[in-house]
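Its record is retained below.
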Amino acid sequence: QVQLVESGGGLVQAGGSLRLSCAASGRTFTYYVVGWFRQAPGKEREFVAAISRNGGGTYYSDSVKGRFTISRDNAKKSAYLQMNSLKPEDTAVYYCAAFDGYNVYAAEGQYDYWGQGTPVTVSS
């Protein structure tokens, strides 16, 4: 198993940037594909980005492509989400998630392990 803890959320003005971190503990981090999801108030949780075990493969939702970058540092057992050009519609609680696999997936049901989330608020 792996435990995930997100950090780095906060309040930022539109056009600004934030970097979220996901720290893992437990089983070897390199076994896991890592994804970021978000849930805005009153909406369902949605996929944001995912990264393969070795970082060589990434996948983004259309809504964040070109603005967000997912990365990982397996030596530090951490994953990151760099968010640039933030918009008010990016306001949400952001979750880190993981599953033991090889291919990156957007489907929430594929992910077995979840963090508690970190809130991001983008003001206009």
Observations:
- The longest strand covers residues 18-26.
- The chain has a mean pLDDT of 96.
- Residues 43 and 92 are 9 Å apart (CA to CA).
- The chain has no helices and eleven strands.
